[in-house]
Amino acid sequence: MASDTVISIGSGSEYMASIIDSSPVPLIALDMSLRIIMFNRAARELTGFEMADVTGCRISTLVGFEDTRRIIRDLRDGGKSSDDHMAKFRKSGGGEVPVRLKVNPVMSRGGELAGAIILAMDLTELRELQSKLLEAERVAAITETAISVNHEINNPLCSILGYTQLILMDKDSLDPDVVRKLEGIEKQIIRIQEIAERLGRINRPVLKEYVGGSRMLDMEHSCVEEAADE
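Above: the chain's sequence. Below: its structure in token form.
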């Protein structure tokens, strides 16, 4: 019969501290004065702060006034775990990182509130993904609008151009000044058709500043699909 093997892992408290520090989830422990008493490795990597930078400091070292108030309200809420809420952690050296926080109460053996454990989730990649999705939706909306405008403009333009060219077929019997004006109309109609056709092929719109702080489509710098070979 094989003998049992006992692996020494040190004291229970040391082992628990090692587990907490090795957690991939940023964890921050607070006492009842909202002072940081534990700041695990994932939290250090997320913020750039070391243990010595934050140990003994209030949680307001990491979060803003409103988020600090939210944590206080969570701790006063009868010792119940809070709902997740969005916040921002300050980073060492400046800047902020968006996070989702959950405040979990730590109860004493007597059932009294002794502090809290804060779990944080880095939302940087999620925010970047949301930004890309919003940009894709914006591009799709602009493209759909451009196609609709092209369609709605091109139909009446074709009629106007057709009538203009029919009149010009008898230009020998018309006043030269009238012919000149009709040819000018024909030229501008064709130009509008070209713009509308380009508008319908834009797949990467670029915006530029316009009057009153608004923005408009930059036709020159927006990317368009290459026309299919006929």
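Helices lie at 12-22, 41-47, 51-54, 65-76, 124-168, 176-200.
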